[in-house]
Each structure stands twice: as structure tokens, then as C-alpha cells.
Amino acid sequence: MAGKSRPELWGKALNDLRASKMISGRKDDPLSLLKVSYDYLQNPAWQECLLLCALWPEDFEIPEDVIIECWMGHGLLGDFNNMEEAYANGYEIVDGLHKASLLEYSEDEYLRGVVRLHDLIRDMALWVASGGKGKKWVVLSGVDGASDEALRDKMLWREAHKISLMYNLWLQRLPPDISAPNLVTLVIDYCGIGLLSYGLGSIQNFRNLTFLDLSSNVLGGIPVEICRLSKLEYLNLSANLSISSLPRELEDLKRLKYLLLSNTAISEAPRELFSSMDSLEVLDLSSSLKKISQGSIINNNLDGLKGRLKGLGINACSRRDIDKLGELSVPITRLVRWITEYETGPSLDLLPRRKHPRDPTWSNMIHLGVVGRVGLSGPETAGPSIGR
What we know:
Order of helices and strands: HHHEHHEEHEHHEEEEEEHEHEEE
Number of strands: 14
Strand content: 5-15%
Radius of gyration: 23 Å
CATH topology of the domain at 25-119: Arc Repressor Mutant, subunit A
């Protein structure tokens, strides 16, 4: 009710609170009372954004950028022309949820841009998301290996719409021979997927999957089974440090809008792969953990994305890379500039410059990372990051 001053609105809220007690059948039921605040959110998209926060483990502090990218992948940020606008839409939702007392900022003064759900709010969100039955959403994030038995329950997979298994290092594979006809969201980041060669074989049976997050695992490549998920719109494989190549079969993902591959070892891609992905809007290949030259991708794979890409993350290891990116008229969202000991001249000459104030390539940059060397043979050191 923040910002509501009319007595009539407060009277209506009081009646809603009384009604919530009657519906639940328990006067002391906190979930039905908290749901009134959920019901008072401005629009259904904001409600869904709140529910998605419950995919993270209990008491978990979530970086705003991470949760906003999750909302983006679920199509909840409205219309945007570039990633700067997308993040602005996301921050507006974060602020609105905070003002509604449904989302908290971290109490740690050293953690900026971090949010969390109160335990009761999270319980309410999961209760609402599952329609009170506990089966549409399955959240086993941050639990111990005892849930391995639950994952073998075929009925659980058959009925679930969203499943979150994040932050389970014990999880190395999905159960074999399972079907998930209703599953649209699957989150398995920060697990051990990839330690076993057959860990994702059953994923090809998830035919209606639109959102897949497999970031921060140990995949050595992109399983071809993923390329058979024809309805996929969001794929995050970031921080799988051993992924070094892209299969041509990725072009079969005709609905894919968001392909996130940051902090992998990808240095090249099949020619015209990305331009053949008809719906692609955001592509992130940037890596600040390891020097990966992506000159081949810059020269051979990005021309076909002019006019339709809303955000690009990329490495640049030379002035030539910078100049070529400037010719593409593709909005660069994240740039990691690797400076070698062979490059000379004023430092600013090694970085991108806008040709004019509305230059579409550099005007909406959110993150600029500079990685160089100390001396001619010293270790690589990260320079300042600008933006997120």
C-alpha cells in the first residue's frame, strides 16, 4: 500500500485482508495475508518477476543483474531496443517490489545491487506459483544430496512447469529416461553437470522448454541434445570454462533470442552461424577470465546481425578488432579489451571511441573491462571495469 493515501483504498485493502483469512480458513495463516501484497502489484508481469525470485535458495542474496537477466529470458521486461533499456526496465521492477515490501536490499553495506527474499515471502511465492498444490514448481536449489531420490520421481518431472536445481554441486546428471511435457523453465547452474559424459541425455525429451540455464557447470562442450529443443528462447552456458567450440546444430534453434556464453573458451564459430539464428537478439561471448582471441568471430560471423541484435558481449585483443566492431553498427553491451605487451601508444587509443554521440555501436555499453600486462613478461592484470 506504499504511496496510497485515499481512505477508500485503505478500506478496500482492509476488506481484502479479512477476505484472505476466510479463504484460507485460518486466521493466523501468514501466507494468505502476504498474498494480499502480491495481489496489489501493478501488473501480472511484476507478480511473475517476484515468483521467479523464489527459484534461488532460501536466504540467498541475488545480484540485481542476475535476476533481471532471468526476467528478460522469461519475457517480462516489456519492449526494449537495447540492453541498457532492458536493465532500466528491470531496475524499475526491483524498485517497485522493494517499495511494496516484497523484496529486500542486502543489509551488507559492502554489497550493492543485491536483493533477497524474506523466508516468508519466498514461501508465499512458492505457494502461489504452485497453486497451493506444490507440484507446478519444483525448487530444490541449495539442498543436500538427499533430494537425489526425489529427482528420480518421474511424476515430478511430468507435472512440473518450472524446476530449479541450482547450487547443488553433488548433481552431475539428470535422471535417465524421464519426460517433462509441461516443463518450460529449467535452472541447473552452479552444479556438477559435465563431470559425466551422459549427464544431459534426457534433456532432449523436454520439448516445450523455453528457458535453460546451465551456467557455472563443468561442460566440456555443448551437448547436441540441447540443439533439439526447438522452442528454446533463452540459453545460458556461461562460465563453463572448457566449452571451446559451437556446434553447427545451434542454428536449428530458430526461436532462440538470448545466447549467453561469457567466460568460456570460444574463439571461433561456424561461419554465419549467428546470422542463421533468425530470432537472436542478445549474444554474449566475452571472457575476462582467460585471454580468448575472437577476431575470427568479429570478422566472419557478425555482419549478418546488423539491425536486429540488441546486445553483444565480445573480446577485443587488438586495435583491428576495435575498428572492425565499430564498422558493424551492432550495439556492444559488454567489451573485454585484452591489451598485449606488443601494443603501444596512449592507453585511450587502445579503447573504442564513438564516432558521434548517437553511435549505435558504443552508445549503450554497460560493461567495459580492460585486461593488460605488467611489463613485458609480467602476469595479466585486470584493469578497471566500467558499468556492471
